[in-house]
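Q: I have 636 residues here and want to know how they pack in 3D. Can you give me a structure?
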Amino acid sequence: MNQYQASIYPGNIANPTITHADPKRKNVAVCFSGGGSRALTCAWGQLLGLSALKDEKANPLLNDVRYISSVSGGSWAAVLYTFRPQKFTDAQFLGNSYDPSQLYYDQNKPGGLNVNIMGESALGKIPQNFANLFEPEPTKNIIADFIVITALKGIPLRTSAKWLWFYIVGKNVLADFDLYTFKNSIFKFHETPWQYPDAKYFSLSKDYAAKNIFSKTGAPPEDAFVYARTNSEGQPACPMLIINTNIVAKDYPGSNLAAPLQIPVQVSAVAAGIYGASPYAPDKIGGGGVDPFAFTSSLASLANTGEVSAGLSMAYTLTDITACSSAFFASILVDPMKAVVAALLERSDEHLHLHFAKFVENADKLIMSDMRRKLSEIRDELKKTDKRDLVPQYNYWPVSQITQGAAANQNTLFTDGGDLENTGIAGLLAQAQGTVNNIISFVNGAEVLEQINGQIIAATQMAPLFGVAYDDYHREFKKYLPDGINPFTHQTDPMGFLQVFDNSHAEFDALRQGLYASNGAGAKTDPAFCLQTLKVVKNPLLGITQTRPVNVLWVQNAQVNNWQKQVTDPALQQKITNGQQKGGLSEFAGFPYYSTFKKIHQTPAETNTLAQMWAWCVGSKASPLSAAIAKMFAAA
């Protein structure tokens, strides 16, 4: 284990996420919600739209965003946008926006886009990668690959299970952009998909690391980092990114819980940690942040003022935080693992050997009876495995407890950021409180915007931020009761502690009405958005102490007929309409409300089309949302 010195940032000193955000950029933050590949696809289009939308000097508005806050699938997009190597240009990564009349399902026409063709270095290629999650042929299934690799290395399931989702995110989200580089070797048994020599820490820039990390007496090697994209002067070229996840609280207020209590965690390129606290004091967590490279380290002791000595047995990488931010998927992989192991054991020795040979040199020396025995052991272990075993787990030590030294270390479960708060606004306000005046919140959910029996069903993911609970069965909204009690279940609800906006004047009702009205009041004509000036309220869970007004432009994923009716290609028109009517697993099923799990894998046509819809909504002068965004930037 390597011993390094790391800076800590207690809550009573300046937060480096604020001090190192580019002050030349406008006072505007953008939030990308969770939602798997649907959220990534929407965010791709929204990034493209913000890039296409120009100010009075013809500069892209995207270049003026100061912060991005992301959750789950939104983090897949945001991490790649921020940290992809310089060789992946904006033109390759974002591509171009097209008028809906220029979109074609299966034709290549001058000036148009064949939506069945995906750019080799485009952000939109990620959803296609997830086909390997459902592949019935084991040699093409990513879960089978992970099981084979760990079996070859003799790693028991109790050790490897929590790293399965890490591996899937690394291979499917980050590897195409050189941000996950594991290569298996049977001759290097100490190297695993989660711990290998080329794994990199991450930071803001070489200049920042030189001044704030490598200047310490004990610091990680300079070649052990990747950095956010920089401009020709070596300065950050992207907004300050805040990635959201949670930890599961260890102390609970009795047994009357709707779900385990979770404490929000925010990770940026310069600090990682918890600035809030558990609603119940026994946890004694939080207290501030630490250099990201040391976030999951083992605390040894205090070093110099504002520094700790910490042990690191492995790098804390972009794969770690990206997997944690989207860990919802990890909890539903037990049954797919069982199915894959059963399929492997049904293979003949010849076919099984071919699979193992994918990862082994001199595969002719493999003894298949040994491999079958190891697979059988994994099968037996899976009988005792539940979803909690697949959730990411790391060491965590609270900045508030550093005087305890090694006694502060604790193994901790990390959960999907969206398990608690899916918009990214809560984490943004926790990190940048008092410094952000304007927020564009892209809520890229699968919730159909509609009115049922006089009740507008909208903004269900935003509701807890106003202290409001939503019951899906009754299609009803009610205010949370004191102490986080859900008014429908009468249990303590983790989301009951999330209120960050004053709702004393029915602000949440106004939001629902605004979203519904802008979308055509049932006609689904234009993008669903609503601009509000809201008062931020104090929140102990998030560490928010300042109350002040903030402008929030809410944008909810919704069907946009004024875009859809401009699609003139008959084949694409038919595909979209059929998908909206049939649902299920058909191509374009539910468009634009692709299922979070069933549509984690998308075809190029599904991804391109949804992204282009959002690029038009954000960047086209024909869209009223575009005008609202431009106005916010002009006033910022």
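Q: Anything worth noting?
A: The longest strand covers residues 2-10. The CA atoms of residues 164 and 279 lie 31 Å apart.
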